[in-house]
Amino acid sequence: MLKLLGCVCILAASSGMAYSLIAGLGCELRQLEELLDLLLALEGEIAYCRSPLPELLRQLSETAGDAYRELLAEAGRRMEESEEADMAALWRETCARHRAGLRIRDAGYQALARIGEVFVYTSLESSLQLLRLDQEKLKGVLAGKRGEFADRRKLYGCICYMAGLLSIILLL
Fold first, then answer.
1. What is the Rg, in whole angstroms, of the alpha carbon atoms belonging to the chain?
2. Model pTM?
3. Which of 51, 104, 120, 131 could form a cystine bridge with 108, CB 3.0-4.6 A?
Protein backbone atom coordinates (compact mmCIF):
# COMPACT_ATOMS: atom_id res chain seq x y z
CA MET A 1 0.00 0.00 0.00
CA LEU A 2 2.85 2.40 0.83
CA LYS A 3 4.57 1.62 -2.46
CA LEU A 4 1.37 2.39 -4.34
CA LEU A 5 1.04 5.70 -2.50
CA GLY A 6 4.69 6.44 -3.30
CA CYS A 7 4.07 5.69 -6.98
CA VAL A 8 1.12 8.08 -7.06
CA CYS A 9 3.21 10.80 -5.37
CA ILE A 10 6.06 10.33 -7.87
CA LEU A 11 3.65 10.51 -10.79
CA ALA A 12 2.05 13.64 -9.34
CA ALA A 13 5.49 15.23 -8.85
CA SER A 14 6.57 14.46 -12.41
CA SER A 15 3.28 15.90 -13.72
CA GLY A 16 3.82 19.03 -11.63
CA MET A 17 7.36 19.43 -12.93
CA ALA A 18 6.19 19.10 -16.54
CA TYR A 19 3.43 21.65 -15.92
CA SER A 20 5.89 24.06 -14.28
CA LEU A 21 8.34 23.90 -17.17
CA ILE A 22 5.63 24.32 -19.78
CA ALA A 23 4.09 27.25 -17.87
CA GLY A 24 7.51 28.93 -17.82
CA LEU A 25 7.75 28.64 -21.59
CA GLY A 26 4.25 30.06 -21.97
CA CYS A 27 5.11 32.97 -19.68
CA GLU A 28 8.17 33.84 -21.76
CA LEU A 29 6.06 33.74 -24.92
CA ARG A 30 3.41 36.02 -23.38
CA GLN A 31 6.02 38.52 -22.21
CA LEU A 32 7.54 38.68 -25.69
CA GLU A 33 4.08 39.31 -27.15
CA GLU A 34 3.50 42.04 -24.55
CA LEU A 35 6.85 43.60 -25.49
CA LEU A 36 5.84 43.65 -29.14
CA ASP A 37 2.55 45.29 -28.18
CA LEU A 38 4.51 47.82 -26.12
CA LEU A 39 6.73 48.66 -29.09
CA LEU A 40 3.66 49.13 -31.31
CA ALA A 41 1.98 51.34 -28.71
CA LEU A 42 5.16 53.37 -28.25
CA GLU A 43 5.41 53.90 -32.00
CA GLY A 44 1.82 55.13 -32.14
CA GLU A 45 2.27 57.44 -29.15
CA ILE A 46 5.47 58.94 -30.53
CA ALA A 47 4.09 59.35 -34.05
CA TYR A 48 0.71 60.82 -33.22
CA CYS A 49 0.42 62.06 -29.63
CA ARG A 50 3.87 63.55 -29.06
CA SER A 51 3.32 63.91 -25.33
CA PRO A 52 6.24 64.56 -22.95
CA LEU A 53 8.31 61.48 -22.20
CA PRO A 54 7.42 60.94 -18.51
CA GLU A 55 3.73 61.36 -19.30
CA LEU A 56 4.04 59.01 -22.26
CA LEU A 57 5.61 56.31 -20.08
CA ARG A 58 2.94 56.76 -17.41
CA GLN A 59 0.18 56.37 -20.01
CA LEU A 60 1.84 53.27 -21.42
CA SER A 61 2.22 51.79 -17.93
CA GLU A 62 -1.55 51.99 -17.47
CA THR A 63 -2.21 49.96 -20.61
CA ALA A 64 0.87 47.69 -20.62
CA GLY A 65 0.84 44.08 -19.55
CA ASP A 66 1.68 43.05 -16.02
CA ALA A 67 5.31 42.31 -16.80
CA TYR A 68 6.14 45.85 -17.96
CA ARG A 69 3.72 47.97 -15.93
CA GLU A 70 6.05 48.66 -12.99
CA LEU A 71 9.07 49.14 -15.25
CA LEU A 72 7.32 51.84 -17.29
CA ALA A 73 5.93 53.59 -14.22
CA GLU A 74 9.33 53.68 -12.53
CA ALA A 75 11.06 54.90 -15.70
CA GLY A 76 8.47 57.68 -16.02
CA ARG A 77 8.99 58.75 -12.40
CA ARG A 78 12.77 58.72 -12.69
CA MET A 79 12.72 60.68 -15.95
CA GLU A 80 10.38 63.24 -14.43
CA GLU A 81 12.66 63.70 -11.41
CA SER A 82 15.89 64.09 -13.39
CA GLU A 83 15.10 65.96 -16.58
CA GLU A 84 18.75 66.62 -17.48
CA ALA A 85 19.93 63.00 -17.16
CA ASP A 86 20.83 60.78 -20.08
CA MET A 87 17.46 59.20 -20.87
CA ALA A 88 18.91 56.15 -22.60
CA ALA A 89 21.16 55.34 -19.61
CA LEU A 90 18.27 55.94 -17.22
CA TRP A 91 16.10 53.53 -19.21
CA ARG A 92 18.82 50.85 -19.28
CA GLU A 93 19.31 51.16 -15.51
CA THR A 94 15.59 50.76 -14.94
CA CYS A 95 15.47 47.73 -17.24
CA ALA A 96 18.44 46.18 -15.44
CA ARG A 97 16.71 46.67 -12.11
CA HIS A 98 13.58 44.86 -13.36
CA ARG A 99 15.34 42.14 -15.36
CA ALA A 100 15.03 39.55 -12.58
CA GLY A 101 11.22 39.80 -12.75
CA LEU A 102 11.12 39.30 -16.52
CA ARG A 103 11.19 35.89 -18.17
CA ILE A 104 12.47 37.15 -21.53
CA ARG A 105 15.91 36.08 -22.67
CA ASP A 106 18.68 37.89 -24.51
CA ALA A 107 17.04 38.92 -27.80
CA GLY A 108 13.89 40.15 -26.10
CA TYR A 109 15.81 41.94 -23.38
CA GLN A 110 18.03 43.66 -25.96
CA ALA A 111 14.93 44.96 -27.74
CA LEU A 112 13.59 46.21 -24.41
CA ALA A 113 16.87 47.93 -23.51
CA ARG A 114 17.10 49.56 -26.95
CA ILE A 115 13.84 51.40 -26.37
CA GLY A 116 15.90 53.93 -24.42
CA GLU A 117 17.77 54.88 -27.58
CA VAL A 118 14.49 56.04 -29.09
CA PHE A 119 14.25 58.76 -26.44
CA VAL A 120 17.61 60.27 -27.40
CA TYR A 121 17.01 60.95 -31.09
CA THR A 122 15.95 64.45 -32.01
CA SER A 123 14.51 63.29 -35.32
CA LEU A 124 11.06 61.77 -35.10
CA GLU A 125 11.67 59.66 -38.19
CA SER A 126 14.89 58.19 -36.73
CA SER A 127 13.05 57.16 -33.58
CA LEU A 128 10.26 55.55 -35.54
CA GLN A 129 12.70 53.67 -37.79
CA LEU A 130 14.50 52.28 -34.75
CA LEU A 131 11.19 51.15 -33.26
CA ARG A 132 10.15 49.49 -36.52
CA LEU A 133 13.50 47.73 -36.76
CA ASP A 134 13.13 46.39 -33.21
CA GLN A 135 9.57 45.30 -34.01
CA GLU A 136 10.74 43.29 -37.01
CA LYS A 137 13.52 41.64 -35.01
CA LEU A 138 11.12 40.84 -32.20
CA LYS A 139 8.59 39.37 -34.63
CA GLY A 140 11.30 37.02 -35.90
CA VAL A 141 12.27 36.03 -32.37
CA LEU A 142 8.61 35.52 -31.48
CA ALA A 143 8.01 33.30 -34.51
CA GLY A 144 11.01 31.19 -33.56
CA LYS A 145 9.85 30.94 -29.95
CA ARG A 146 6.37 29.82 -31.02
CA GLY A 147 7.83 26.97 -33.04
CA GLU A 148 10.20 26.13 -30.23
CA PHE A 149 7.34 26.18 -27.70
CA ALA A 150 5.48 23.31 -29.36
CA ASP A 151 8.61 21.18 -29.58
CA ARG A 152 9.78 21.89 -26.06
CA ARG A 153 6.34 21.31 -24.60
CA LYS A 154 6.39 17.76 -25.95
CA LEU A 155 10.01 17.26 -24.89
CA TYR A 156 9.44 18.47 -21.32
CA GLY A 157 6.35 16.35 -20.97
CA CYS A 158 8.13 13.23 -22.22
CA ILE A 159 11.22 13.75 -20.08
CA CYS A 160 9.29 14.44 -16.88
CA TYR A 161 6.91 11.52 -17.33
CA MET A 162 9.72 9.15 -18.29
CA ALA A 163 11.71 10.22 -15.23
CA GLY A 164 8.63 9.63 -13.11
CA LEU A 165 8.04 6.19 -14.61
CA LEU A 166 11.71 5.28 -14.15
CA SER A 167 11.50 6.34 -10.50
CA ILE A 168 8.35 4.23 -10.05
CA ILE A 169 10.08 1.19 -11.59
CA LEU A 170 13.04 1.67 -9.28
CA LEU A 171 10.70 2.01 -6.30
CA LEU A 172 8.93 -1.23 -7.09
1. 21
2. 0.82
3. 104
